[in-house]
Amino acid sequence: NVAVRLVDYRPADFLIDAVALDISLDRTASKVVATLSLRRNPKGAPGAPLSLDGDDLTLVGVKLDGRPLGPQDYTAAPDHLLLEKVPDGPFTLEIETRVDPSANTQLSGLYRSGSAYCTQCEAEGFRRITYFLDRPDVLSVYTTRVEGDKGEAPILLSNGNPVKSGNLPDGRHYAVWRDPFPKPSYLFALVGGDLGALRDSFTTMSGRKIDLAIYVEHGKEARATYAMDALKRSMRWDEEKFGREYDLDVFNIVAVSDFNMGAMENKGLNIFNDKYVLASPETATDGDYAGIEGVIAHEYFHNWTGNRITCRDWFQLCLKEGLTVFRDQEFSADMRSRAVERIGDVRGLRLAQFPEDGGPLAHPVRPEVYHEINNFYTATVYEKGAEIVRMLRTLIGDETFRRGMDIYFERFDGTAATVEDYLSCFAEASGRDLSHFALWYSQAGTPILSTEGAYDPQAKTFSLTLKQHTPPTPGQSEKKPLVVPVAFALFGENGEKLELASPDARADELARGLIELTDAERKITFAGVASRPVVSALRGFSAPVRLEPAPESADLEKLLACDDDPFNRWQAAQSLALRAIFARVDAAKKGAQTPQAPGFIGALRTILAGADADPAFAAQALSLPSEIDLAREAGHDVDPDVLFSARYGLREEIGRALGADAEPIYRRLSDAGPYSPDAASAGRRMLKALALDLVAAGDPEKGSALARSQFAAAGNMTDRLGALTLLALLGGEAREAAFAAFYEQYKGDALVLDKWFSLQATIPEPATTKRVVDLMRHPDFSLTNPNRVRSLIGAFSNANLTGFHALDGSGYDLLTRIVLELDPKNPQLAARLLSALRSWRTLEPRRRGLIEERLRHIAAQGNLSPDTKDIATRALS
Ligand code: HT7
Ligand code: ZN
């Protein structure tokens, strides 16, 4: 694939004002007739030929203004249609193509999921349906007529509002849909199938009644109840928080089982991976419910941030994705516990985005070049993109942020916008120059922030020096200082929050406890400080940076006790845990005696004792960092086995010390009534699982007995899977028996079996590679279904540090084999799987060598897809 560069952006040479699509569904030869109302773009190149995008298309015929064209009038290939000469005034082009949905294993364009027909057009799937100017800055009004067999596809859906429908000869029927809102082709969607529906309605703030429907496999309608509730809450929230009202008469969601990502925000017709729609207490965990709520909200919020205002080009992807992630995170924070949501979001950012930013796949939130756009739906664009929006709000304040958003919606509605357009609204609302802040969009890499305090007991002053630097990333060796909002507080001897006075900071910075660091270094001397204070920096994780080094242990213990910022209280516990684990790692390397961590364990005992006040928070604070967290924090020469042993050892030490305190908590929380997915109940279940783990860590036999009875008696999937997770770790016959019983109970339910696959793939043992290989032969596994592949292979390679990185290279061999087998069928999925190797350079030399060999082998394959080639090449760069 050729490189596409942001600097090369040019407006399209033609505009397509209206599109009339007539699609006749057939399993292997669907007929597509597209009638395009074209005119030259005044901003395009005068006299340019008309060049339309295609991908794997079969052309049947072309008509210009109703006149059939001959082959001498155009050049056609599967990937383009070129007309050298077209009228200077407006004209219509009718293009007929044939597509084979059954053969479409890429799941991009028109394909079949089970017995249904569905589409996925973002980013470049529309060109696999018809020839088009398949770029996000060409906005058209669509009318779509869908025709299908009445038995096979009684439901026929597309974007917009239903216009008419009727019967046809030969058992066929049709439906016409019209979407009055101009949209880019990536938001086009169509569904045809025999589906059940859960129906409801929503009355908007201006009193319009919207018909809502969620289409699912027959018999599963009740499992969409939570998704429907989440949808209605999202619609209300967007009205209340952003003044955004829904605009069509209907809003439809369709759940399909074969989908490359989580969901897609097609105008008025969202298509979802069924994992993010279907839930019942017996089949879904608390995490699944939270995921459904978040994804339903995310796709709904795109109606304004993405659809009504779209992106000028794919480099601006963060404009819709970062902003919409920010909006869905805020929604979840309002629906649930803000503190727990923030901790979860930051954990997610550190898990997925920090390694991306620190490795060979690093790119700016707004990339400047791509070879394959599908590889840029990344944690950097989404999650770091959301953090930039959050920093902007922090800097200018809630009210000014809302004014800026209002200007954005008002000014850019119906357009394809850029990051500059977006920022201009906030510059106007706040009166600030945001040009320096904008560097967050173009500079890759995670900045490192350090704080250094110096107390002068004579002068009663405390000097705080903040420094920032960003390590180089591929293609960007020089880094500039960024605008970093550092939320902070000082705590006195007795844990009291200090009043801040300093000539070195603006009054508003002191009042808000927010320092704006804009240079590489800034020193602030606080006056009237009676004794050496403890600094709470980066409160609420006010910027996506690494704070290094963590404060001293005594200060962390103090923060854990007195900080009124829950995020930093949690962070203090994590930092103490990291310190205790790395002390064990160091001792193991030196062959020294294992260090104990009494101070840390004392702090955990206090959290456990007060856990009832906020069970979810306590569970988060008591959870040790994962091995993946440890590997990231170590940063270089990572030996997964050493990290595993150190973490496991500390877990045992904590269990021996706190198991007795944890058991009564476990027993008390086991007495919960009927299942409810609300955040408070979920928090209690989280604490219960944590308490059980503490008991098992100190006394594995007792833990196993409790887990076995919880597994057998569980009234919901959260408790059942929690018990199974512990049994999987403890091993032995009990584990195998529980896995077998779980399968017997849930066979036939693919989404539940995904949990069964994942859990087995993450058993931290060398034998897991063989288990994964065996499971690939299981009749319920399939390489053609992305959810199955992600739950088995994705879980193994991303979430099983010791198993995947087995020293014999068997995990790497397995991943290599699967990537190469999958690549011709579903390149997007293959490329994503391969990204599991992105942090290979942080491993110790032996494993590094093994991975490099496999990456070179993959990159050297002759017929690799652009997707996988791009990842392999960049990973090696
Ligand atoms: N905007 C959607 C992205 C998406 C996607 C991208 C590439 C290939 C397939 C895809 N399916 C969905 C989803 C979202 O961010 O809301
Ligand atoms: Zn999105």
TrEMBL record:
InterPro entries: Aminopeptidase_N-like_N, Aminopeptidase_N-like_N_sf, PepN_Ig-like_sf, Peptidase_M1, Peptidase_M1_dom, Peptidase_M1_pepN, Peptidase_M1_pepN_C, Peptidase_M1_pepN_C_sf. Residues 445-548 form the Peptidase M1 alanyl aminopeptidase Ig-like fold domain. Residues 226-437 form the Peptidase M1 membrane alanine aminopeptidase domain. Residues 554-876 form the Peptidase M1 alanyl aminopeptidase C-terminal domain. CDD domains: M1_APN. It is an enzyme of class 3 (hydrolase). It catalyses: Release of an N-terminal amino acid, Xaa-|-Yaa- from a peptide, amide or arylamide. Xaa is preferably Ala, but may be most amino acids including Pro (slow action). When a terminal hydrophobic residue is followed by a prolyl residue, the two may be released as an intact Xaa-Pro dipeptide. Residues 88-187 form the Aminopeptidase N-like N-terminal domain. Its cofactor is Zn(2+). One of its GO terms (biological process) is proteolysis. It holds the Pfam family Peptidase_M1. GO terms for molecular function: alanyl aminopeptidase activity; metallopeptidase activity; zinc ion binding. Keywords: Aminopeptidase, Hydrolase, Metal-binding, Metalloprotease, Protease, Zinc. Its EC number is 3.4.11.2. Belongs to the peptidase M1 family. Aminopeptidase N is involved in the degradation of intracellular peptides generated by protein breakdown during normal growth as well as in response to nutrient starvation. This is Aminopeptidase N. It comes from Methylocystis parvus. The lineage of its organism: Bacteria, Pseudomonadati, Pseudomonadota, Alphaproteobacteria, Hyphomicrobiales.
